[in-house]
């Protein structure tokens, strides 16, 4: 499916010099300040904007921001929306921002809401899955994480973890998974990649410890109004994982150190949008992300979830 990765030796994990070689090849391709921070700042009249950490990477400084509803009431359950854990997954970042800008306030009657729109800003700027240390923040959401992106987010959310009802984590699966990120991962770890499946459309990853199938179904139903839901492959799988229900697979998010496992929320899901599909556009990918968050919240309201 791909050419041998140009860094490292076949079947041998990368050493420090290989990671440095990889880092030297990365280039800034877009602006976190222009694309993301300016949008966050524009929300300051309607939300509390909190700087929860600063990433320092080779002459680049990235402040990290949380968007928090102003009408905060301790008795209400909290909703967490995260985007940009993988910085290259564009609609996750801009879907989180669109939800905050256009929709979050209408749910303040029922919930407190926190949005972390871009957890990995260096990844956003370089269009990367990893951080500069060649590690994946979305496998490192655990105590004393070696990824500052993950650790800062977890440390910030610790104060709210007692009352989080729902966490929706916004992601994409793109053609570059096969052309770049899966080959790079295999090369870094000295293994062979055997999964080349990229689902054609939107799907969800639920948590095996708290799968909530009705909740996942409600999200899929709402997203289907705006974008295509990915069918399973010929083996009844998505990305090599058996289908649980239409458009849904499950991972153990806690054991794997995924962002969706970072809190004790009983309702969690990870979205996956496919921006490279023939029927996809940047806007309907963002619309799909927003529809996922709204579908989740409408389900919780309808069922009076606590």
Automatic annotation (TrEMBL):
PROSITE patterns according to UniProt: PEPTIDASE_M14
Domain of life the protein comes from: Bacteria
MF annotations from Gene Ontology: hydrolase activity, acting on ester bonds; metallocarboxypeptidase activity; zinc ion binding
Alphabetized CDD domains for the sequence: M14_REP34-like
Keyword annotations from UniProtKB, A to Z: Hydrolase, Metal-binding, Zinc
Key word Metal-binding present: yes
Domain Peptidase M14: 28-306
Cofactor(s) named in the record: Zn(2+)
One Pfam family recorded for the sequence: AstE_AspA_cat
GO biological process: proteolysis
Family label: Belongs to the peptidase M14 family.
Protein name stated in the entry: Peptidase
Lineage of the organism: Bacteria, Pseudomonadati, Pseudomonadota, Gammaproteobacteria, Alteromonadales
